Structures
1.
Amino acid sequence: MADVLVIDPTRRYREYLVPAITAAGHACRVVSTCEEAVASGRRRACEVVLLDVDTPGPEGLACLPELSAMRGQPEVLALTAQRTGNRAEDAIRAGAWDVLLHPIPESSMRQVLERCLYHHAAKVALIGQANIKRGDIIGTSLPLERCLHSLGVAARTDTNVLILGETGTGKELFARAVHENSERAGRGFIVVDCTNLPSTLAESILFGHERGSFTGADAARDGLFKQADGGTIFLDEIGDLDLSVQKSLLRVLQERTFRPISARNEVRSDFRLVAATNCDIEDMVRRGAFRKDLYHRLKTRIIQLPPLRERRDDIEPLARHYVDRICRQHRLAAKQMSPDFVDAVQLYHWPGNVRDLINALHYAVQAAFAEQRLYPQHLPVEIRGHVMRARRSLAPAREHDEEMHPPMSSARAGTEAGSAGTGTGTGDNGRGHATEARQSDTFGQSDTFGQSGQSEYAGASGQPGTYGQSGAYGQSGGLGLSGGVARSGRAGASGTAVHAGAGAAFAMSAADLHDGARAMPAPSSDTCPPPVERERFGFANEVFPSFRSAREVTMDRMESAYLMELIRRSRGEIASAIALSGLSRARLYELLQKHSISLRTGN
Ligand SMILES: Nc1ncnc2c1ncn2[C@@H]1O[C@H](COP(=O)(O)OP(=O)(O)OP(=O)(O)O)[C@@H](O)[C@H]1O
């Protein structure tokens, strides 16, 4: 007997489903909402969930991932009455085990349930989930749990695994974990970065060569596939592999044998292949840039790692872990994260994912060199600008919250008055303000932009900068006043040379902090205005950004401005926005969400 949970918001299924399920010898519970299902699943695990995917909003397809991640990891069977359209396909893509078309004959119901339960039992036996060694993988969000679940299944078989996900989502970490959890764990884990594989030498590096087979081949060499014998070979960024090498790889995957360059005999290797890419590989297949037959070989088991912005619950534990680690690395006393710091890192969209977060934490730890607590003001300016915009879009809710709380600190009151253009623009109380502001829940006010004199933020890939100038907080206090001129412009920036520099650094953030795409240049001095391009792209800053970081900020601004114009031109009509932009519906929604832009208002 199994436990079956039916989610039937419109009450159209229960009448005939319940008798059919109980007649098949299973226990059946019926609920009306996804929330009730999750609560019910918490009290008692179930093996199968029947979900009406025609219901719009949070009760339909959207809750499918949450359901299949419930205790017992039930299979989800989708119910639909739609014979046309993409409903069934969407449900399968979202992770449904199968789709039942309304009205469902009792015999079909029985058959599908039986097959589904058989599969579920096998899956549960296979996973033995509690035993998964996570290695360095941190996080407990539902999307990550689902990936760990796939990892568990993948590790206990010997099939090829393809790990997909944006840059920095942990593909290599997962690849290692697949190996560590497999029977091959004691053997080699060979990593091949296909991006850096020169096409002329790729075959020799992968499959080996005989002595004298080409100029410089003064000795015979085993290739990486031979080195992986008994273990796992990880082809990172497989999307970058040359088409000719893809062809050879296909044969190796089929035969498990290959011929090193100039060798007479074939060599055998018992390897397990794990591959990863951040490319849209299906699109590459469509474009002919990736072999279809190879893709079919690779996709036996896919682990799709979600971007960090889609698993915000993981951000705090990740940040905690890495802040501790960075402090240890630099022999610093452990630092706490203030609630508003946590709030800020959770609000940011992390285009470079976990790697990006780690780099920002490096920066923050250094910025807070002598302090025991991390505040949002310790984050790189470009991140603070984004967070401020995101906060602004949440403003009504927060304003309401604030009504319930004690009055804001004087520092905040001061800076807010300044933002409205009434700040005095003098630096007298700078330091005091900066400190208080950091303790308040304020954000993006420029009182601490003086950090600009510090180490450069390495963007998504670089190393942390140096500690040298963390004393910049003195200046940042002084700059507290330029918070008062965040909108009115430049007054605060024109005092001393130090302030001018810091004011220039503020130029980048000012552009970020202004509404949408209306980035206002803020020249560092009245006598020598820097060229518009330098300002627009943030090159006028004291801290010259890394190329990657500058590109990200610029791309982000462009995207944001483009979307606002797109919404304006399409008058908020999604169909016309899609037609005008050439974006897919999903991608358009994703971008709008990323930039916190509303389809209706365009801001
Ligand atoms: N879930 C996680 N828990 C802890 N650390 C993580 C997690 N995911 C990623 N990281 C860390 O983030 C960094 C990037 O991870 P990794 O190199 O595995 O990403 P990737 O997806 O392979 O990136 P790329 O596509 O750029 O090669 C590494 O330092 C890794 O340890």
Note: The domain at 142-306 is CATH 3.40.50.300 (Rossmann fold).
2.
Amino acid sequence: MAEAFSLQKVLETFRSCLSEEKEVYIKYYLAGWQELVSFMNTLGNVFSFISKDVVSKVQILENLLTGENGSHYVTVQSMVKYELENNLVDITKRGNHIESGCRTLLRLHRALRWLELFLDSLRTSKEDDKTSVMCCDAYNESLAQHHPWLIRKAVGVAFCAIPGRDTFFQVMNAGDETQVVALLGESLPLISEVYQITEDLYAKNNLLELP
Ligand SMILES: CCCCCCCC/C=C\CCCCCCCC(=O)N[C@@H](COP(=O)(O)O)[C@H](O)/C=C/CCCCCCCCCCCCC
């Protein structure tokens, strides 16, 4: 039987993500996403179009990591260097490299910002606050800016099926509410640091708008 989701495991994967030199290990980054997908899979079919998209992007990056050029895909930094130096990225319009590592990771990177905003809302929320509103606000501030109308509408429908705050606190499998809030407080700086390092790297290389 599959192991239950736990926030602690997500925290550990993001903790393992950063090397001493503050490079981001792709292997652990993907492990973090796999853990989050396992959580989303418990929420029902209405979320399956979202988890399928994440799974396919994780798979693209895993294939690169385990493929013949895998040594260049150990960290986000080495991937960016390798793909740019070898013209493996479609920079302004889609061409021959629609499954480049840089482009694929950028989609997950934007979603990481959503996660950061959502978890922070959850951490500071009050008993009567609605998770659908937290989720939607986090989405509008992050991913929505990169999604076309049709996707935004489908995501809006999925938000209506989001479980309530109590359920979220339970499925995080991290004890009572105070303990979950404390663990979120510990996890968020790690997620933020991984996000910011990637954001700065992509900004420096003009990769934030890859098609
Ligand atoms: C207790 C833990 C707390 C929460 C755990 C949540 C688990 C979340 C897991 C995944 C979150 C969503 C990840 C979404 C990745 C989207 C990547 C993307 O932007 N893809 C689009 C662009 O790709 P290309 O076409 O350019 O290749 C793609 O078009 C979009 C597809 C589907 C829409 C994704 C919307 C995501 C909205 C975020 C809300 C998630 C709700 C989760 C409910 C908890």
Note: The pocket of LTTT4AJV is lined by residues 7, 36-37, 39-40, 49-50, 53-54, 107, 110-111, 114, 135, 139, 143, 151, 155, 162, 168, 171-172 (CB under 6 Å).
